[in-house]
Every structure is written in C-alpha cells, then in structure tokens.
Known about the structure:
The chain is an alpha+beta fold. The protein has nine helices and four strands; from the N terminus they run E-H-E-E-H-E-H-H-H-H-H-H-H. The protein has three domains: about 1-65, Alpha-Beta Plaits, CATH 3.30.70; about 65-120, no CATH class; about 120-185, Homeodomain-like (Arc Repressor Mutant, subunit A, Orthogonal Bundle), CATH 1.10.10.60. The chain is globular, with a radius of gyration of 18 Å.
Amino acid sequence: xxxxxxxxxxxxxxxxxxxxxxxxxxxxxxxxxxxxxxxxxxxxxxxxxxxxxxxxxxxxxxxxxxxxxxxxxxxxxxxxxxxxxxxxxxxxxxxxxxxxxxxxxxxxxxxxxxxxxxxxxxxxxxxxxxxxxxxxxxxxxxxxxxxxxxxxxxxxxxxxxxxxxxxxxxxxxxxxxxxxxxxxxx
Length: 186
C-alpha cells in the first residue's frame, strides 16, 4: 500500500514519517519524498492516527488523486533542485510529462489551480532558495553556483535572483540576517 504525504520535502521529513510509522507498528518497504510504501493494509483508525501525528509536523496524508499529482510535481522539482546535481537531458516540461505520464498542459493547469502559482514560478522559487542556501554555506562562488544549478550564465542567475529577492547575490551574501524560506513554504 502506498501512502502519499503532503509537504514531505526533506530528509528530516522522511525521518519523521519513518519514526511515526514505527511508533504505530507499521512496516514499510521504502520512504521517499512524498510517499511511503507500507507492506500491509492500514485500518482506518490507524491511518487517522498516523495522519493526526504527522500533522503535528506539518505533514499530512493525501487522499485526493489530483492533490497527489500536485505533490508529485512538487517533489520532482524539490528533488531536482535540492538533491540532484545532474542536469536533465530534456527541457523541463518534457521531463515532467515523461516522469508523470501526463500532458504538460494538464499538469500546468492542475498545479496552478491547486497552488495558485505556475509550475515555472514554483521551480524558480526553489532554485532561488537553493542559491540562497549555497551563498550562506559560502563554499562556492557565484560562478560555481550558477554552474551547479544549470544557469546559462552568472548574469542570468543574478537577474533572476534580483527579480525574486530584490537583492543581488553579492548583497544577499553580505547581509547579517539572511532570510530563507523553509522548503515546505516555498
């Protein structure tokens, strides 16, 4: 049985889900961003208790098929931006369509309807949050960050960063109070 879980965006979220499943004596095959593969059927009262416990951490079980698809889109974006250094071989819309086996127009309309923003804006917001994170770590220069996040140039990264944050990457790097948005709130 597969459980789809909303706002499951990080390794920490996976650990929370694992812990909550274990507390309830549930066995799992795998826990991934956005879902957990459970080896047995879960009685509704246990499922409700799991959902209640997950909500304490900002997570929840998703029942609606369209909401599940939106979460899958979000998790693919998060996986690409935050956990993968590989550049996709296709353009993003084709990549998403291929991964989810749906027409991109359908995915884009569904996502906008549920999230109130476009897939592209969501993707860009995550890229900018990743840039902020890498600037704070101060291990890479802006050229290396642009390369790692597959920007065509430093100028392109800088323009998008300024458009979203109102600051240049260099100015952001020197701020004393660097404001980042938690992944589940992007």
